[in-house]
Amino acid sequence: MRVIESFQINLYDYKINSNSIVHFLRVEPGSLSISLKNILEKLSELSWLNKFSKDTLKISYRQKAESTINHLEKSLYDDTESVIIEKAGEYIVSAISKDAIVEELNHFDLPLMELLGRKKSGNPGFDYYTEERDNNILFCGEAKYKKGSNPYSSSFFQIKEFIEEKKHVADASLLDELADDTSLDNLLKNIFGISSAFSSTSIETNKLIENIVKNENFINLLEYKNIVLIAVNMP
Questions:
Q1: How far from each other are the two terminal CA atoms of the chain, in whole angstroms?
Q2: How far apart are CA 19 and CA 12, in angstroms?
Q3: Residue 12: exposed, middle, or buried by beta-carbon count in 10 A (0-12, 13-18, 19+)?
Q4: Cα Dmax for the chain
Q5: Residue spans of beta strands (DSSP E) within the chain
Q6: What is the pLDDT of residues 50-92, one digit of tens each?
Q7: Where in the sequence is the domain holding 51, given as residue range(s)?
Q8: Among 17, 77, 169, 186, which is least packed, fewest CB within 10 Å?
Q9: What's the number of domains the chain is made of?
Q10: 177 close to 52: Cβ distance less than 8 angstroms
Q11: What is the pTM assigned to this prediction?
């Protein structure tokens, strides 16, 4: 995984009057097989379990995480590369985007929500969280994958919907003892950031951003101060 572009979007350049801070990342995953291997290796590092103060929680979350990892290993290695991407594209975008935010923006890493026992059926909530500890802000992340497309609009819409449904508030219990207490308190007070991750075609970055800033679902997110956009180049 390599971050190939990283910059703050000047909304005034697009005649948008907003105080939102919007950071854009573009990520090149590199070889898919290597990316998948790296994702699974990182998921298998369960050092975050040491954050829990009670052995009962450590044992319980270890079981949940290992079950998820075992399932993913089978899903990601049982088929051809094209089938793997169709089945796990959204998961790949989610994992790579979270790593890019941690690496490029120095956010604190938190385990993917699926590792904490969340089921993927229906619309359970945000895919991932990262934490900007300097300002005690949690970023709620949602990833979308669609072959041959740039599904940022779907990601924006889902984020807005999840916030209205207070999915981030419900997630606070899963993040307890993993995130800083002040960050969690801020989350419950609706002080948080959002990150939108999406698969990307070979579209030029300038054109991609021009399309994004005109998108109605993006405009609806500008009531939030801190926004990170992550475009992941996918085949």
A1: 14
A2: 10
A3: exposed
A4: 54
A5: 2-9, 21-28, 108-109, 128-132, 137-144, 193-200, 226-233
A6: 666 667 666 666 766 667 666 666 666 555 555 556 667 777 8
A7: 2-233
A8: 17
A9: 1
A10: yes
A11: 0.84
